Amino acid sequence: MTLEENIIGIEHIGIPTMDIEHTIQFYEAIGFGLEYFTELPQEDGKLIRMAYLRLRNVEIEVYQGGPIAGKSGAIDHLALSVADIEEAFERVKEKKLPLLEPRIRTLNMFEHKVRYFTLVGPSGEQIEFSQRI
After folding, report:
1. Strand partners for 131
2. Which of 31, 86, 113, 130 is most buried, by the most CB atoms less than 10 A from its CB?
3. For 34-67, what is each residue's pLDDT tens digit?
4. d(CA 60, CA 62)
């Protein structure tokens, strides 16, 4: 089996945060559920607070602290596939989640189009909602 054949999808996306409780609440508002929470002791005796959140087959690992927590670019973006971009956009607006832009964009990509919009998460990360059409 080649490496390419062995890779079957995204395991999780790691996001450092300054406020893990706020980050968990934000992702729960999108529809993720908290799967696991722990505090891991480090060599210096400090604890790192860590949570895993899941929405169907997408898993996010958030952890409090680290040198890039809260800095834009800690991750560029997390793209989530959706079945209906219009409905997703309406649900996000209803929840008053912070949109990067107040509209759905369309891109011509290869043999199809992609419609998407983007939220800004509590640690500066961008969460893209995307539908191929």
Report:
1. 115
2. 130
3. 999 988 887 888 888 999 999 998 889 898 887 7
4. 6
